[in-house]
Amino acid sequence: MLPRHFLLALLLLVLSGSGRVVGQGGGDPRISVNVLSNRVALGEIGQLIIKVVNSDAQVPRTVEAPGLDVIFSGEQSSIKITNGVRSAETNYFYRFRGNSPGTYIIPAFEIRIENEPVMTSPVEITIYERERNEGGLDATKPYFGKLELTKEEFYVNEIVPFTLNAYVRGRGAISDVTQAKLENGSFVIKSFREVRTDGAEVGDVYYSSAVIPSTLFALKPGEYRLGPAEIGVRAVDPELGFGLPLRFRSTTLREMVTNTVNVTVKPLPDNAPTSFTGGVGVFEIAATASTTTVAVGDPISMEFFVSGIGNLRTMGAPEFGIPQTGIWKSYEANKELDDETDSDGFNKGKVKFSRVIIPEAKVDAIPSFLLSYFDPAKAEYVTLRTDPIPLTVTRDQGAESPAAMRFSPAEAESGTSPAADKPTPAFQDILHIRKGTPRWVARADGDSPGPVFYLVQALFLAAFCTVAGFGVARWSKAWRAGRLHRRTHPTYARAVKQLPRPGAPRREFYEAVSLALAQWKREHPRPAPEIVRAVDHLAERCANVLYSGMNEPDSPVSASETAECQAILHKLPRR
């Protein structure tokens, strides 16, 4: 008997050690590991439950399982009394999801019960993919989600509307939508902003639904699996608040995942015209010019309005139909598009492009601009053309050379101007002195002048003050105008001294540089060719900052930029 008792004691000692393995049944404390279902559809969430009776456990937050994502989601405790015996039960919940079809194992992992390590038993899970014709509506579930696309075969950059649908059993069962998420690195998915609530019967059971619409487009061709998406809703708890109005009922957070959808993305044809800028859909175009009367070198702001159903976000600005080198100078366009005016795949959207163009020669019209897009319904490229805009171009007054004095050839050869006429002297500076008897005149009456005299003097004084006032006003106005002209048209040296310092807005700095260059050109009408090239290069840089839509003119100018421009300006010759 002693060997038998010894072996039993040794067995109990081994079981009480640090390597206890618990299967789907157990001793005291009773432990069990279960799953709601061993078969879970691809993208859907399964649930693993660890039940611990009459004890507390410490469980890990995540479990490493190849091919599966296993995350702790919460715990629930309860007390039961059976035949007068009281027992405590705690359930620990894990959520798991598979990323591809197959059979996987949730391996045994360690939990701690009363500070002792215990190993759970492994669980086998099968992840399967639903058939394409298998409906996502399941009346056996209290809630579920569904992903629906308007088409499963489309082109790169083509806008595809889709919806995420959340279903909860019962009328008015959805109080709010808290989360909607669909991610895929090969697609650009528009954020979810709108929710529509509705309801439908599924297998004679009424479900409340929340429809969340959005759009997506693919970045590259290929075969892809979209989903599963995640949806979170606040659902009305049917067991609480019975008979009360909806706003007084208790709600519970329900998180659900949708099905997956396999899609095929086709590439765009290779025969794209040079005017194709990335738009896919059906569009219209209109163009306007800020002015139709300019001088050579003056900027014109062109605005293009493109409207239609399709992808406006990948579309670029229209371009000249024919190259305009030496005739027109064009800068990068600015694009204005927001979510309110974007197309949703069903309704038209509108985008605005702004481009600055400058005539470099005298022309009679702004030429046509071209915009090409791909029409997925016709599977071909379509080119839109704007109408030419009549234009009046005048001479550049600033380019005229200053007026010069001209002399006749005879005067030039003589080298002297014509002689002046010889004046005739007049000897009237010494007059005759009278020596006869003087003739005396009586003194005038010394009476004071009358009121008429003062009235006349007052009238003359008022007239004089009025004329003098008008004269002073005109002089003051002319003086202020001259002062303003000197301020707005300073000399080149003064313009260089007034350049803004580093940290000022780039627009303000380059406007001052452009003003200094213009003044230098007025002061030096015939500079050397190498100086002209340096000045034109700096002027081109100023124009790119001021007119190009690709720069940030309101950002602060750096010290290196100011130093570089000032170095060039200081090297230019001065008067």
Question: Can you put this structure into words, describing what you see?
Answer:
The protein is of the alpha+beta class and 575 residues long. The protein has 4 domains: 19-128, Immunoglobulin-like (Sandwich); 143-266, Immunoglobulin-like, CATH 2.60.40; 276-394, Immunoglobulin-like (Sandwich); 492-571, no CATH class. It is 20% helix and 38% strand. The protein is built from 7 helices and 35 strands. The strands form 9 sheets. Strands 24, 26, 27, 28, 29, 30, 32 and 33 form an 8-stranded mixed β-sheet that branches. A 5-stranded antiparallel β-sheet has the order 2-4-8-7-6, with no helix packed on it. Helix 5 (506-523) runs antiparallel to helix 6. It is elongated, with a radius of gyration of 46 Å. The termini are far apart.
First and last CA, distance: 125 Å
Helix tally equals: 7
CATH class of the largest domain: Mainly Beta
How many beta-strand elements?
35
The overall number of domains is 4
Instruction: Determine the fraction of residues in helical runs and give it as a percent range.
Output: 10-25%
By secondary-structure content and strand pairing, the structural class works out as alpha+beta
Helices, strands, pairings?
Elements: H1 2-15, E1 20-21, E2 31-35, E3 39-41, E4 46-53, E5 57-58, E6 62-65, E7 68-82, E8 85-98, E9 102-106, E10 110-113, E11 116-119, E12 123-128, E13 143-149, E14 153-155, E15 160-169, E16 174-181, E17 187-189, E18 196-202, E19 205-218, E20 222-226, E21 230-236, E22 251-257, E23 261-266, E24 276-289, E25 293-295, E26 300-311, E27 319-320, E28 328-330, E29 334-336, E30 349-359, E31 365-366, E32 369-375, E33 380-385, E34 389-390, E35 392-394, H2 409-414, H3 451-488, H4 492-497, H5 506-523, H6 529-547, H7 559-571
Helix pairs in contact: 5-6
